[in-house]
Amino acid sequence: MGTPMVVGGLTFTLVKEAQYSGFQVSHDPGNMLVWFASVFFMVGILAVMYFPLRQVWILAQPEADRSRLLLRTRSGMGQKRN
Asked: What's the pLDDT at 10?
């Protein structure tokens, strides 16, 4: 300690020893939440890529003694998206 030493053309001197401590986390309570979120994220991405764009429009119009239900569907296949 305190004696200079030459290594590879550089001079090193040990002035004093440094003490430190380290720790490792062995249990993370939020670990399962991260795994569930990543699985749902991947399922969502696969659903977006696999299923085409589809829209369903429903309009309910009340009339005197009954109601009228209008239904319109649209698929995004073959149409340009802006």
From this structure: 92
Q: How far is residue 29's CA from residue 46's CA, in Å, rounded to a whole number?
A: 28
- pLDDT tens-digit readout, 68-79: 888 888 776 655
**Domain extent at residue 71:** 53-82
Name the domain count of the chain.
Answer: 1
* Beta carbons within 10 angstroms of residue 63's beta carbon: 7
Q: Which residues pair with 69 in a beta bridge?
A: 60
Flag whether 75 is in a domain: yes
- State the Cα–Cα distance between residues 76 and 53, nearest whole angstrom: 5
Could you tell me the two tokens for 56?
């369903």
Residue 62 placed within a domain = yes
